[in-house]
Amino acid sequence: MPKVSVEIPQELLDDLDDHVGDEGKFVNRSDAIRASIRKTLDLLEEIDERQGRIDSSEADD
C-alpha cells in the first residue's frame, strides 16, 4: 500500500487521536484517516450526482 505524508495542525491531530486506540473507534491513525477519506469521497460523489455532474450509474463503477 502506498504511503502518503501530510502536514496536519496539532489541534486537528489531537482531535483525531481522541478517536484512536483501545477506547477509540479506530485501531490507529491510518485507519482513521482512510475512513475519513472514504467518507469525504462518498459525500463528494453524492454532491456531484445531485448537481448533475455525474450520472448515478457511473458512480457505482
Automatic annotation (TrEMBL):
Residues 4-42 form the Ribbon-helix-helix protein CopG domain. Coiled coil: none annotated. CDD domains: RHH_NikR_HicB-like. GO terms for biological process: regulation of DNA-templated transcription. This is Ribbon-helix-helix protein, CopG family. It holds the Pfam family RHH_1. It comes from Halorubrum ruber.
